[in-house]
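Progress report, Aim 2. The chain analyzed during this reporting quarter is listed below.
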Amino acid sequence: MAYMPLDKSKLYLDRNKMTKIWDLSAPWGIDTPLWPFPGARQDLIFPRGQYLERFHKRTMTYTGTLHAATHMDAPQHVLHEEEVDRERMGYTLNEIPLEFCVGTGVILDMRYLKDEFEVNFKNGNYDTDIWVELKPEHFIAACEKDGLEIRENDWVIVNTGFHHYWRINNDKYFNYYPGMGPEVAKWLIHEKHIKGISGTWGATDSPMWHDPLKEQMPWLDANYRKATGKDPSIYYNDYEPCHRLFMQHGVCTVENAGGDIDEVTGKRMIIAAFPFRCEAADGGFVRLVAWEEGSF
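Predicted structure tokens for the chain:
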């Protein structure tokens, strides 16, 4: 019989004697929120091939996008091969150097942005301030607040607080999160020399940096025009510039951070996010984690 009664007295592994690791990843499954492209999009599907009640084992297959929940993008997601130093930086997911995927880092506290958004949203203050584009000064202020410093080869993770909307209000999560534009991307690349970036946001770029917005996210284009009276294509006239800038320079980009992030916000930690070794993948799921320096 394929049945094995549990004897807890023979279990020897004790988590309390191990190094604490914080999981900064969002769980994913059949109801995982997906980036809101126009038109219908297939949900994540997990059919069973075998099941315990007959075969005494469970096997499942997965059908769906690799760009869901907490995941890393590969350069081939947004760049042509000629735009990348493939030997040095990698191109497909399996080629990203593992040295880039782990190192020292800081988790920056920008949770006040969610509080400010909530006040403006509830009060009907739908001006340009409701869509916050992060600038270098946001990063500098967050570092000064908690006595942190962005060092060369650091990972930087930004806690905007918007992960609390994940699966609770996906409209707010994907359409209004404070996100990055090319100004701060260039600053992080060329002045701070980081090697990894992540945050509690739906994409590496602000939702507004998806030009032409009227085609990519027509509802957001309409909301912005109605709220501000402005044409977003004038102010956000490129498609995912941060994606391309970061990946061309070898900076790992991980989207949809969350999980235990509030427990380590405002701290310097060791950060790791290892992609799986798939030759065809232009992105894929990672377990974004953190632990205290020197704890191993």
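Residues 65 and 260 are 24 Å apart (CA to CA). DSSP finds eleven helices and 13 strands in the chain. These observations will guide the mutagenesis work planned for the next reporting period.
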